[in-house]
Amino acid sequence: MPEETMLAPPGRRPVFRFAPSPNGPLHLGHALSAILNHEMAQAVGGRFLLRIENIDLARCTPDHEEAIYRDLTWLGLRWEQPVRRQSEHFGDYGAALDRLREMELVYPAFMTRGDVKSAVAAHEAVGEVWPRDPDGSPLYPDADRKRSETERRRLLAEGSRHAWRLDMAEALARVARPLTWRETGEGCEEEMQADPAAWGDVILSRSDAPSSYHLSVVVDDALQGITHVVRGVDLYHATSVHRLLQELLSLPEPVYHHHRLILGPDGRKLSKSEQSTGLAALRAAGASPADIRRRIGL
Fold first, then answer.
1. I want to staple 17 with a disulfide (CB 3.0 to 4.6 A). Which of 45, 49, 160, 272 is the partner?
2. How many whole angstroms separate alpha carbon 215 and alpha carbon 159?
3. How many CB atoms lie within 10 A of CB 101?
4. Which of 272, 231, 261, 262 is nearest to 25 (CA)?
5. List of residues 6+ apart from 118 with CB closer than 8 A
6. Is the torsion defined by CA of 264, 269, 273, 276 positive or negative?
7. Going by C-beta distance under 8 Å and a sequence separation of 6 or more, which residues neighbour residue 267?
8. Distance of CA 195 to CAs 42, 175, 221, 249, Å?
9. CB–CB of 104/164 below 8 Å?
10. pLDDT tens digits for 98-139?
11. Residue-wise pLDDT tens digits, 241-263
12. Is the entire prediction scored with pTM above 0.70?
């Protein structure tokens, strides 16, 4: 294998997972992640789980979900049943959000994307630099965090559309020790320093989705007993937020392994809209599972 296998935590059978979203066809990048998870689990006598991350009910479809099963089966992968589907577990994410609400670590956020864009534009129009997260998106303004409780209750009573965001500064103030994680993506285990503050007040729930990726992934990993999270390096920095949520919710900490990405001809990571790299399209064109492995460097 081109990737170093992670060691199992003492006394625990390793549990790996591949967790795609059914909002488009799987591509070569997904094949790399799925195969790595499968083979690394086999190498240490661990378990391999499949999770369907379909909290976005508007974009995720049953057809895409069925295509995921077909593609992974064609690649020769086998996973435990039943498959966890996030849309069937909204109550778990709501309970986690309620805990953070009881801890007074979240607040209702009423600004729309347009409001945020206008605030950032006005700030930068006078030569000021607006802070951005590791993905390059502007940090959420502090207007909602500074609202009085009276005004929040009024807006909520009026039915104003809102999301729930983590009060990052207050959350970090509750953490008694520096946050780190165990990373094995470079072939040897390292302790990495987490920097959740770089993300600002991250969103945990939206009006059109009962949970965010950040919240649902840490809840799912804990409930499924995931010991090893193997995923693309594009999610490396998000681990800082996940470690903070794990600490706040007293959830176990997996070992993390962030692997290389498969890039397109333009040097950017693959997109589900790239038909030329879709597994179904490649299969229809005559490619074999062995061809896929060669194309992704395995």
1. 49
2. 24
3. 16
4. 272
5. none
6. positive
7. none
8. 32, 12, 20, 18
9. no
10. 999 999 999 999 999 999 999 999 999 999 999 999 999 999
11. 999 999 999 999 999 999 999 98
12. yes
